[in-house]
Write a structure and sequence with these properties.
Layout (H helix, E strand, L loop, with lengths): L3 H21 L10 H16 L4 E2 L3 H4 L3 E5 L2 E6 L8 H12 L10 H4 L1 H21 L2 H13 L1 H7 L5 H20 L4 H17 L4 H13 L3 H39 L6 H8 L4 H16 L1 H21 L2 H6 L8 H28 L1
Antiparallel strand pairs: 1-3, 2-3
Helix pairs in contact: 1-6, 1-7, 2-4, 6-7, 6-9, 6-15, 7-17, 9-10, 9-11, 9-15, 10-11, 10-12, 11-12, 11-15, 13-15, 14-15, 14-17, 15-17
């Protein structure tokens, strides 16, 4: 007779295979093109081949110069060097495009570059299961990734080539490392994974500092001040490395661009808009309720599932434009699996409650 762990492992394999099929069916046509997708590929290809990134920007005034590039009926203001975002995700997407034989801007195709977020989303499914299994149990974990695999909203987001896809991997890697360190504070492997994730997250996208922020608070709550400091320093190091990258290309321009990025921040409702914008997906609303229950219960589940969501929302509140945070669904990608873990937990609890009530009625 198979043990529950083996049944669960087989179920995870099946769910991931089904998720791969659902994400891969018509992925190049749906959703419609988001121009950012080309941007990541263009900056990556140019950085890898010419060692200077070229991409399209919405901050032309801050750059002071751009070249109009028309392609497929759209006009893109190209700038060199491109400094709107850190380079890590661009290198990944550009590298995949280059391996596929794409060399010029006009060679880039969605059929190639969308394989990157799809692949990353499948990795996240496995990581999310591992985290949920460790914090809320096997069956809530299976329900969570089952919802993630079949949810139309999650499938659509998994196809979009946005840096949040890689940021999610760093977040979950850090959370799994934290889970190991909670039990074994001197685990060198977990420490290395935590540091790498905290450094790499802001090198993927600046709001990735939330990974180090969440890790530092979790470690401090477990009375591990040295590890908390290490996580915070690692996140800061990621920002410093991005600034060094900007300095190598053009530090004056880098400062101009990030001054313009800061000016985009309006008010402090971006976090609220981020959460509200997901309510069109019923699983999202269910997950928010589940996270609230987990937060009330406390323990490792609250620190490793609920707190990272709050940390990310705080960072988005402090750094993002409220209109963009509500309108662009991909801003929610990093916390989508965590919210779905909340939904899986809540569904499992409701089923357990119904069974308990039915058993009591039978006894009567």
């Amino acid at each position: 007779m198979l043990r529950p762990q083996r049944i669960a492992a087989l179920a995870v394999v099946v769910i991931v295979l089904v998720a791969a099929y659902l994400r891969g069916r018509g992925y190049a046509q749906s959703p419609p093109l988001n121009a950012d997708e080309y941007d990541w590929a263009w900056t990556g290809l140019s950085l890898l081949q010419q060692h200077v990134p070229t991409g399209w920007t919405g901050l032309g005034a801050a750059y002071g110069h751009w070249v109009s590039f028309e392609w497929q009926g759209n006009e893109y203001p190209l700038v060199t060097p491109y400094l709107d975002h850190p380079p890590l995700f661009s290198i990944l997407v550009g590298g995949v495009a280059w391996i596929a034989g794409e060399r010029e801007l006009t060679d880039v195709s969605l059929s190639v570059i969308r394989l990157v977020p799809i692949g990353l989303s499948l990795v996240v499914l496995v990581l999310a299961y591992r985290l949920a299994q460790a914090t809320v149990g096997i069956w809530p974990a299976l329900i969570a990734i089952l919802l993630l695999a079949f949810s139309p909203a999650a499938i659509t987001l998994a196809r979009v080539t946005e840096s949040e896809a890689l940021l999610t991997v760093w977040l979950f890697t850090a959370l799994l490392a934290l889970n190991r360190l909670q039990k074994r504070p001197t685990d060198r492997y977990a420490i290395v994974l935590l540091v790498i994730s905290c450094v790499a997250a802001p090198l993927t996208k600046v709001p990735g500092i939330a990974v180090g922020f969440a890790a530092a608070v979790a470690m401090y709550s477990w009375r591990r001040p040295r590890l908390a400091l290490m996580a915070g320093i690692a996140a800061f190091a990621g920002i410093v490395l991005f600034a060094a990258y900007g300095a190598l290309l053009d530090f004056g321009l880098f400062l101009n661009i990030w001054s313009a990025q800061a000016d985009r921040h309006t008010g402090f409702s971006a976090g609220y808009e981020l959460l509200r914008g997901g309510l069109a997906d019923w699983c999202w609303g269910l997950g928010i309720v589940g996270l609230s229950v987990l937060a009330a219960r406390g323990g490792s589940a609250a620190r490793l599932v609920v707190w990272p969501v709050l940390a990310y929302v705080v960072v988005i509140t402090l750094t993002a434009n409220a209109d963009l945070a509500g309108r662009y669904d991909w801003y929610r990608i990093p916390i989508y699996p965590l919210v779905y873990i909340g939904a899986g937990f809540l569904i499992a609890e409701l089923v357990r409650g119904v069974r308990t009530l039915a058993a009591k009625q039978e006894d009567v």
